[in-house]
Fold this protein.
Amino acid sequence: WEAPRLPGTLWPLNYQLELWPMMEPHKSLEVDEHYNLSGQVNITFECLQETDLIILNSAKLNYTTWNLEALNYTHTEAPEILNTWWTPQVVPRNTTYYLVLELNDTLKKGGIYLD
């Protein structure tokens, strides 16, 4: 993903965050010390235009699992996640990282999904 903005194919409706801070510093090769968080993020979104990609702004976040489901009242099935990758967007004095989820089918226009 090389655009400076996220695509207009998906519209977030709700973010639900549950975070657990780790109070002991973690040693890393990149920096001397940093503090980690673990937790869960659920994003409910509406599909405005059919797409087989979900792109998330993910600067300084690491993910361990992904799950995608269609909410029951939309009468649609959620596609499976085929592939994931990170891609940087470099602008002057800043780099933003995006997580790209490639799906095995398209999200349907008007469908409501939970990621």
